[in-house]
From TrEMBL:
Domain Aminoacyl-transfer RNA synthetases class-II family profile as annotated: residue spans: 134-470
Name of the protein in its database record: Asparagine--tRNA ligase
Family: Belongs to the class-II aminoacyl-tRNA synthetase family.
Lineage: Bacteria, Pseudomonadati, Bacteroidota, Cytophagia, Cytophagales
Assembly: Homodimer.
Gene3D superfamilies associated with the record: Bira Bifunctional Protein, Domain 2, Nucleic acid-binding proteins
Coiled-coil portions: none
Organism: Fulvivirga sediminis
Catalytic activity: tRNA(Asn) + L-asparagine + ATP = L-asparaginyl-tRNA(Asn) + AMP + diphosphate + H(+)
InterPro entries tied to this protein: Aa-tRNA-synt_II, aa-tRNA-synth_II, aa-tRNA-synth_II/BPL/LPL, Asn-tRNA-ligase, Asp/Asn-tRNA-synth_IIb, NA-bd_OB-fold, NA-bd_OB_tRNA
Pfam family, one: tRNA-synt_2
EC number from the UniProt entry: 6.1.1.22
Gene designation: asnS
Location(s) in or outside the cell: Cytoplasm
Amino acid sequence: MEDLKRIKIKELMDAPVVGKKVNVKGWVRTFRSNRFIAINDGSTINNMQAVVDFEAMDEQLLKRVTTGACVSVTGELKESLGKGQTVEVIVESLEILGDADPEKYPLQPKKHSLEFLREIAHLRVRTNTFSAIYRVRHAMIFAVHNFFNQKGFYNVHTPIITGSDAEGAGEMFRVTTLDLTNPPKNEDGTINNKEDFFGKETNLTVSGQLEGETAAMGMSEIYTFGPTFRAENSNTSRHLAEFWMIEPEMAFYDINDNMDLAEEFVKYLVKYALENCKDDLEFLNQRALDEEKGKPQNERSSMSLLERLQFVADNEFERVTYTEAIDILKNSKPNKKKKFQYLIEEWGADLQSEHERFLVEKHFEKPVILYNYPKDIKAFYMRQNNDDKTVAAMDVLFPGIGEIIGGSQREERYDVLKARVDELGIPEKDLWWYLDLRKFGSAPHSGFGLGFERLILFVTGMGNIRDVIPFPRTPDNAEF
RNA sequence: UCCCCCUUAGCUCAGUUGGUUAGAGCGGCUGACUGUUAAUCAGUAGGUCCUUGGUUCGAGCCCAAGAGGGGGAGCCA
């Protein structure tokens, strides 16, 4: 084979130079008519068609061109005679880089269930659906940094191993180097954590917020984007034990500034996807439509994926206080007809997902930001409002997904925060540095957390969060 | 953690009231054809009916326990 530099399929398709000799490497999707090899290299959802003259080629070599095999083809780029593509490579030389035994290779040129593909997560990236999802995921990662960079926010790496167990966002994964079969003990029989690597009990982070706040109290506007770990025994299509979270934290922002930023942020991401992931979103749009064909009419969504994304980009989110939401729910049909599993009786009740869904999907039919929640159902660090009953918390709720963002204005008044910490019995030794922020140059500030995979669920139209991260970690599953 | 559903060929699924040799489509293989688009046509192979135990003359089908998967709830992002 001639020594020709490999070119990506995306490059060839974006700017095809007909008549040029090119080398393409990738994985065989199908080999039709003993003549047409559909090659995909992951640079785009589109395949490059390579045309071989089977009468002039080694039959044994062509036999090895099977679904899943990795090949390198070299030849002239020509306008395609067929209809499905504009250009194709007329193969002069063909090399098999890696065989794939068709009797054993699990992917076939046919539709596979998502459940089956989850079991072969190391190979599912070779399907249109998953490569499309991962390309969109990449675009969203890029867009997150782009958005904040343009706005003058600084990215901060908060620790993944944390020594404070006061974050209160959920069950934590223990990090230890102690010998679990024979751990060092104190005289009273408890484990002696002083012997552990850090000389104390440590865990994987459940949120970078508290550390993020320290950064905001010196750099004004920061954001984190990192892995987050929750050892909750959650078995749903919206929860992962290991996920990625974006947490901006802004000095001098009140709850309204916070909601403005959250809305602007999500809209930016959705618009970015619409503008930069056209091919992939069109494929995912069609995939979702095909999937819905199998569903009864009343379970189908009123808008297609692309329409939904455009709708979110174009329309104001509805902003409703908790108190207003309770009124709406109390007087709603399902509440009066006792259709809710949990009926709304009075102010103070925690909203269940059936209530959130009603507000978002039935009542307003658009994304909703709920804010000013009762303080008793929210975290200790949220700023108490003047009514003495509510805190300046806000949740952004999305159709089909529920809470995509949770945030608040933070309590910046030392006395108020200290009283709340004491009231809840949170040990001050874990939070002394957090309280210090309120002692020295405190400032009103706000922030929120966006669950990255939940955003990807929305943007790709997928239904299960295990399909929008390459290797999902969930209870009882850490395969791969 | 709780509730519900599922597990039959490589994949997606059918399998009647408990009855003789468990089926289809797709995929694989063999051959034909050759400008195809998940190519087409013909033929063909392929089964621990999730596991264990039980009921029965007889279990893919009934019962119990377990494993795996899915949907929903809670928790949350």
